[in-house]
């Protein structure tokens, strides 16, 4: 059984905050990628919707993801999306089908 955990967060940023969001989250992404057992931590922009982003993360150990969320970088990301978001982020745990 595969223990990898995958999450996608859909983030909607207010138009006037898009540049500030991208600039602020970039170093946090790099720090997150170096977190223990983080396999990837990538941000994508939704095509055709400039203010919508998808944060895609994969972890080999669930507890390390939870520690990351509770740690300083995770809290900074959460605060950033709350402060600059047009609406609350929607977080989904997903699993591979095929």
Task: Kindly describe this structure.
With 98 residues, the protein is α+β, with helices and mostly antiparallel strands. The protein has a single domain, classed as Alpha-Beta Plaits (2-Layer Sandwich). Helices cover 39% and strands 30% of the residues. It has 3 helices and 4 strands, in the order βαββααβ. α1 packs antiparallel against α3. The protein is globular and about 40 Å long.
Query: What percent of residues adopt helix (DSSP H or I)?
Result: 25-40%
Number of strands: 4
Summing up helix and strand content along with how strands pair, one would put the structural category as alpha+beta
- Spatial order of the strands forming the largest sheet: 2-3-1-4
Write the H/E string, N to C. Answer: EHEEHHE
The rounded distance between the terminal residues' Cα atoms is 14 Å
Query: What is the highest CATH level, the class?
Result: Alpha Beta
Assess the beta-strand content as a share of residues: 25-35%
Q: Rg to the nearest angstrom?
A: 13 Å
The helix count comes to 3
Shape: globular
**Overall mean pLDDT score?**
95
Can you tell me the CATH architecture?
2-Layer Sandwich
Task: Tell me the quaternary state.
Answer: single chain
Poorly predicted regions are: none
């Amino acid at each position: 059984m595969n223990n990898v955990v995958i999450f996608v967060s859909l983030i909607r940023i207010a138009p006037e905050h898009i540049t500030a969001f991208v600039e602020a989250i970039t170093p946090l992404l790099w720090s997150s990628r170096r977190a223990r057992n983080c396999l990837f931590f990538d941000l994508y922009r939704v095509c055709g919707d400039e203010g919508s982003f998808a944060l895609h993360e994969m972890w080999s150990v669930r507890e390390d993801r939870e520690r990351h969320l509770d740690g300083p970088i995770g809290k900074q990301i959460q605060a950033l999306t709350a402060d600059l978001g047009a609406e609350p982020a929607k977080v989904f745990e997903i699993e591979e089908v095929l």
